Amino acid sequence: EKLHSVEDIMERNVKALHLQDSVQTAIDRMVQGDISQLPVISEQGNILGIVSEGSLLQKGAHRTGLIEQVMDRNPAVIDVSLSVAEARRRLVEVEALLVTEQDLLVGLVTRMDLVNALRLRSIG
């Protein structure tokens, strides 16, 4: 069975942050969920940025600081309808892609998701 679109491999239950969340909230979610990337969204679900382990380390975040101070404002995004092959090309450059449908966050694809997909099936 071949995987064709990003929708076939994306994580759907994405834990997102909001601008008013604290850095401590991001740290807690990363540790508890064993995840390294957290999207930052508006109340409407529009993508505002992403917080990664790297951005927390790089910016030397204080736990009481706000997400706004440590997030990357230009996250890599991919439309839900695009091909897995396109996601693979983009994931050479970045560790994760935020998946959108009509500009709203609907999922996340990481390098590990792609590796798992390769293990289970061929990628079209």
Detailed description of the structure:
The longest helix is centred in the first third of the chain and has 11 residues, at 23-33. With 124 residues, the protein is an alpha/beta fold. The chain has one domain (2-123): CBS-domain (Roll). The mean pLDDT is 90. It has five helices and seven strands.
Write the layout of secondary structure elements.
Layout: E1 2-3, H1 23-33, E2 37-41, E3 47-52, H2 53-58, H3 67-70, E4 77-79, H4 84-90, E5 96-101, E6 104-110, H5 111-120, E7 122-123
Pick out its properties.
124 residues, alpha/beta, CBS-domain, 3-stranded mixed sheet, two-stranded parallel ribbon, 7 strands, 31% helix, 25% strand, globular
What is the CATH topology assignment? CBS-domain
- Please provide the ordered H/E string of secondary-structure elements: EHEEHHEHEEHE
Question: Which spans have pLDDT < 50 for at least 5 consecutive residues?
Answer: none
Mean of residue pLDDT values: 90
Ends distance: 9 Å
Largest sheet: 3 strands, mixed
Count of individual beta strands? 7
CATH class: Alpha Beta
Structural class: alpha/beta
Placed side by side, the strands forming the largest sheet appear as 4-5-6
Number of helices: 5
Oligomer: single chain
User: How many domains would you count in the coordinates?
Assistant: 1
Helix content: 25-40%
Globular, elongated, flat, extended or rod-shaped: what is the shape? globular
Strand content: 25-35%
Estimated radius of gyration: 15 Å
